[in-house]
UniProtKB/TrEMBL annotation:
This is OmpA-like domain-containing protein. It holds the Pfam family TPR_11. SMART domains: TPR (SM00028). Its main location: membrane. Residues 521-637 form the OmpA-like domain. Keywords: Cell outer membrane, Membrane. InterPro entries: 6-blade_b-propeller_TolB-like, Bact_OuterMem_StrucFunc, OMP_bac, OmpA-like, OmpA-like_sf, TPR-like_helical_dom_sf, TPR_rpt, WD40. Coiled coil: none annotated.
């Protein structure tokens, strides 16, 4: 310990030997010997006796401060540091540094700043961490004076109990909450020998959150499970488990998938995600492509770093495989970074750190990836952050609502709280498409591949398969892009939708879809919702090409069919103009298909103008849906039978 090395040395700092009563010096030296013999209480008594005889014996105050530091009694440590420095502020400048450290931890930031500056003025050899501490204390002092709006609300007794509830996680619809509960007593109220961590789930409806229920086996086991995240769709759960037989190190990341409404047996995510080190606190992106987590594995920047694994493949059974693990260098420090949460926008990362300038302990930070890497982290501010440990924050897809666990006033232990996130700290807007896919004739659920296409570059942004039990799926849609939804499966006509989030976005209105796939037979029709024309023109826009190439592929797979391409308009303009425009647009599509090798004998172009509306022409949305191109199966070509 630094105090012992300096204060208990024969040539130690403090009062000059010639100014000290020899009797007091002997008792001081006896206290030193007692402490070295492991008799700390006797040493304390001896030093207190010295101070009763001479309360200005600074060396005794510093020595007592050191012993109390060793005993983790910060209140007594601070008392004796102040007393010693009041008597002798010149001989032991390090005392100001240690005093400032205590004050910073207590949240007395202005005093910490004052004492650190005194330390810098007086100390010939400055502690390596002193500059870092001064920066943190100055930030904390500023943050207290410039607080952010923060009004946490307890989620209530259906979720929170006398036990500890923590690590909340939400699906994209924000109607399913999965969290960890630490069980300390059995059903009779008797304390458990070993407390048990398990997962609980609650659902939100018009009446509020339902009573949380344990997920049960095979996810919950007699061992501990914790630090989990649920995917945007609610069908994947990643979590942490330690010291299991199939583990790679002390703690590993596992995952489970929901199939037919039930969770399957959890699987170890394996190498390279898991190592001999400690891997925990997973957070998966909404599209499932990246998994963020905390680890003390080799090759990091600090004690605990945030890492990212990329999904490299999906097994034939639909299980994700993660590899290409990289360090998220921009947010990591020589200290500890933990509890990462990647928002559904795919680029806003919330995490905890004990090193970036903050208010003490672990603070919550946000960093944004603008395409060229993550930005310098921003502290979420006071009173979201305090001088206590703050971690485990999540934010819903709207970006407005945040959830975290705290031991502030509640039902006992840690509870889960909600608060409205200050606007400056919010992620980008995200919508989502939630739907059900079924057979148009039988209403039976279907599970085809559902793809979200970025129409700008004709690339697959996200894809999933609906639940085979009910045909339901969910895909997130970050704002700022022009998306198409495509569905193809054998035996059915393809299906498409269009989501334009480039200019306008209303996060309160996600896309809810009921998708009836038409069996391949005469009369079946589907709308080409991703075929676009210039205004009042028959010229195809480039964004149409992905959809039209889909039509080409279908025609080549089903060469026996003759199809009709029909154009439709809204009722704006004259009937004659609308009829002609619809004909020309249908012909433009047919020409594109012919250029791609589809025989003209298999194609019929027809315009209907505004005669077959599918929505009211009294609204902009209705008129937009009436302006459409349809693909209809007419009959089989006898020559191709």
């Amino acid at each position: 310990m630094l105090f012992f090395a300096l204060c208990f040395s024969v040539q130690g700092v403090g009062q000059s030997q010639k100014n000290v009563d020899p009797r007091l010096q002997r008792e001081f030296n006896e206290a030193k010997q007692l402490f070295q013999q492991g008799k700390s209480n006797e040493a304390i008594n001896k030093l207190q006796h010295v101070l009763r005889l001479d309360e200005h014996f600074a060396l005794a105050h510093f020595a007592l401060a050191d012993i109390y530091h060793w005993k983790k009694k910060s209140e007594q440590e601070e008392i004796h540091l102040k007393a010693g420095l009041k008597t002798d502020s010149l001989s032991y400048p390090q005392g100001f540094y240690f005093l400032a450290s205590l004050q910073y931890k207590k949240g007395v930031y202005d005093s910490a700043v004052v004492n650190l500056k005194r330390y810098f003025r007086l100390s010939p050899k400055k502690e390596n961490d002193a500059k870092h501490l001064l920066k943190a204390a100055e930030f904390a002092s500023y943050a207290i004076k410039h607080s952010v709006p923060f009004h946490p609300e307890n989620l209530g007794p259906n979720i929170n109990t006398k036990e500890n509830e923590y690590w909340p996680s939400l699906n994209a619809e924000a109607n399913q909450l999965v969290f960890t509960r630490l069980i300390t007593v059995d059903s009779t109220g008797r304390p458990l020998r070993f407390p048990q961590e398990d997962f609980y789930s609650s659902h939100l409806d018009s009446t509020g959150w339902s009573v949380a229920r344990a997920l049960g086996p095979p996810v919950n086991t007699p061992d501990n499970e914790g630090a989990q995240c649920i995917s945007a769709s609610g069908n994947l759960l990643f979590f942490t488990a330690c010291n299991r037989k199939d583990g790679y190190g002390s703690c590993d990341i596992y995952f489970t998938m929901k199939r037919n409404g039930k969770w399957m047996k959890p699987l170890n995510l394996m190498a390279p995600v898991n190592t001999k080190g400690w891997e925990s606190q997973p957070s998966v992106t909404a599209d499932g492509r990246y998994l963020y987590f905390a680890s003390n594995r080799k090759g990091g920047k600090g004690k605990m770093d945030i890492w990212r694994a990329e999904r490299t493949s999906i097994t034939p059974s639909g299980l994700p495989v993660y590899g290409k693990v990289t360090n998220v260098e921009a947010v990591n420090t020589p200290g500890n970074e933990s509890s990462p949460f990647i928002h559904a926008d795919g680029k806003t990362l919330y995490f905890a750190s004990d090193y970036w300038p903050g208010l003490g302990g672990n603070d919550l930070f946000v960093s944004r990836n603008g395409g060229d890497g993550f930005s310098v982290p921003e502290n979420l501010g006071y009173p979201i952050n305090t001088n206590e440990d703050d971690e485990g924050l999540i934010v819903d897809v709207t970006g407005e609502n945040a959830y975290f666990a705290s031991n502030r006033e509640g039902y006992g232990g840690k509870d889960i709280f909600h608060f409205v996130l200050p606007e400056a700290l919010r992620p980008d807007a995200v919508s989502y498409a939630a739907g059900k896919v079924f057979d148009a004739e039988t209403s039976q659920p279907l599970s085809p591949m559902v793809q979200i296409i970025n129409l700008k570059n004709d690339s697959v942004f996200e894809e999933t398969r609906p639940d085979a039990l009910n045909g339901k799926f969910l895909l997130c849609l970050p704002a700022g892009e022009n998306y198409g939804l495509n569905i193809e499966t054998p035996g059915y006509l393809f299906y498409s939708e269009h989501f334009d989030l480039r200019d306008s976005y209303e996060k309160s209105k996600p896309y809810q879809l009921a998708i009836a796939l038409q069996p391949i037979k005469a009369g079946s029709v589907t709308t080409l919702r991703n075929v676009f024309f210039d205004t009042d023109s028959a010229t195809l826009k480039p964004e149409s090409f992905p959809q039209l190439n889909q039509v080409v592929a279908f025609m080549k797979k089903n060469p026996e069919w003759i199809v009709e391409i029909s154009g439709h308009t809204d009722n704006t303009g004259t009937k004659a103009h609308n009829l002609e425009l619809s004909k020309q647009r249908a012909k433009s599509v047919v020409s594109f298909l012919e250029e791609k090798g589809i025989s003209a004998q298999r194609l019929v172009a027809k315009g209907y103008g505004a005669t077959q509306p599918v929505a009211s022409n009294t609204t902009a949305d209705g008129r937009a849906r009436n302006r459409r191109t349809e693909f209809r199966l007419l009959k089989k070509n006898e020559d191709n039978r």
